Structures are given as structure tokens and as C-alpha cells.
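User: Sequence in, structure out. Go.
Assistant: Echoing your sequence, followed by the C-alpha cells.
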Amino acid sequence: MPSLSRLLTRSAKPASIQRDSLRVTLEDGCEIEVLRVRDPRARRIRLSVSERGARLTLPLRASLASGDAFLQQHRAWLAAQIAAHGEALPLQRGVTAQLPLRGQSRPLRWESGRFSHVREDADGALVFVSPDHAGPTALQRALREFYEAQARADIGRWLPAYLPGLPRPPRRIRLKSMSSQWGSLAPDGTLNLDLSLVLGAPWAFEYVLVHELCHLIHADHSRRFWQAVEARCPDWRASREYFRVHGRRLKADLHALLA
């Protein structure tokens, strides 16, 4: 049995994660910002790139100089990852001239109005209406609402064709920003889909919907599950390849526009 003094001894406070940023110049002369994180859980120096940008993770024992040297040694790799994610720009009133939607870059026109909203013209162009004084938060909220409405319209067209073959319908469908996954099915039957899907090719978006619906039939990724997917989406392999090539850029674009 542990002694009373040991039980009453205050345990050492775990080291906290420390964050700062630094700028690095790539071989093409482009300067980017890298988030530097000193993480007590890290066991080695690690460089990563996601839709949120570049990140250099350092364990507690690593010096800043060793981290900087590691970053310089991997500049070529970093440039390739940045290129794969695209050069997404934040949403700016009167500056942003196009928006991604359904695998295309749609021209965008800005107009003044009483409240912020986005609409689609008959010719496929997008119109962003907003007050002249609207801030970034209001613009981002309006764009998110537009993307969610477009995604739900697509789901509403596709879903009826697949419901008859399911043991039960999904409890509800939620659209949200997902860091790595494209979709998931919760134990209660809630189907989650990544909002950035509406930025990409519709046929790839539909595959993700089919994939998650098939989990209502088979909860695993067994051979029977993939047979159910292929019966409903014969070209599912092409969709997976699409996300391998374009997936990072879709997530990066959504994050840059709405974060």
C-alpha cells in the first residue's frame, strides 16, 4: 500500500505544448510560415503539411537549431507538399474572384446588400451579396451556408435511389469540416460527411455517400461490404483515386475560405 506522504505529494505538472511560428524560404523563392510546436509527447522531429498549413514538431530534448536544420534539409519535400495542397487564399470581399464548386472554379461577382448571402445565377456564375461593412466572420458564415445548401441539394437528389436497398435509413446527415476522413457513420446511425466534398467532382461525392450508406448493411470493410459498394457504385476505384490526387487540395480550399 502506498504511504500517506506519497499519496499526498503533489504530482509534477506535465509539460505543456509550446507553439510559435517561423518563416522559411523555399527553393523557388517563395516564403511560407511554419507552425513550430514543442510537444512533450513527441519522440522525434517531424515535419507535416495539412490543410491547416506546415507544422514542425519538436520533442522536448531537441534544440531549436536542430529543428531549423531539419526544416532546411526538407525544403524540397515541403515545397512539393505545399504544391499538392494548392495555394488557397482566404475569402476577401471584392478580392476573391472565383470559388470552387462541384469540380469547377466558378466566377464570383460581389454586390452590396442588406445581409450576406451567396446565390447562383442561371449561367452558373456565383454572386456574393453582402453589406459594405461585413466582416470576415459574416462572409464565412454566408459561404458555409451556401456550400451546405448545395451539398444537401446533391444528397437530396442521390439518396432516394439508395434507400430501398438499406435495412434502415440514416438517422440524420450532418455536414462538417473533417480533417482526414471524408465520411463516417456513428453508432446511432448519424451519417457525417465532409463539407469539402461539394467542392469536388459530384460523382466522387456520391461515392462517399454510397460508401457510408453501405455501412448500414455491413459495419466493417469486409468483402461483403465492398461487394455492396460495387453493386451501387461500379466505378468506386476511380473515386478513390480522385481523392488521392485532389483530396488535399479540396480540404485546403475549404479551410482557407472558411477558417
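User: And one key feature?
Assistant: The longest strand covers residues 104-112.
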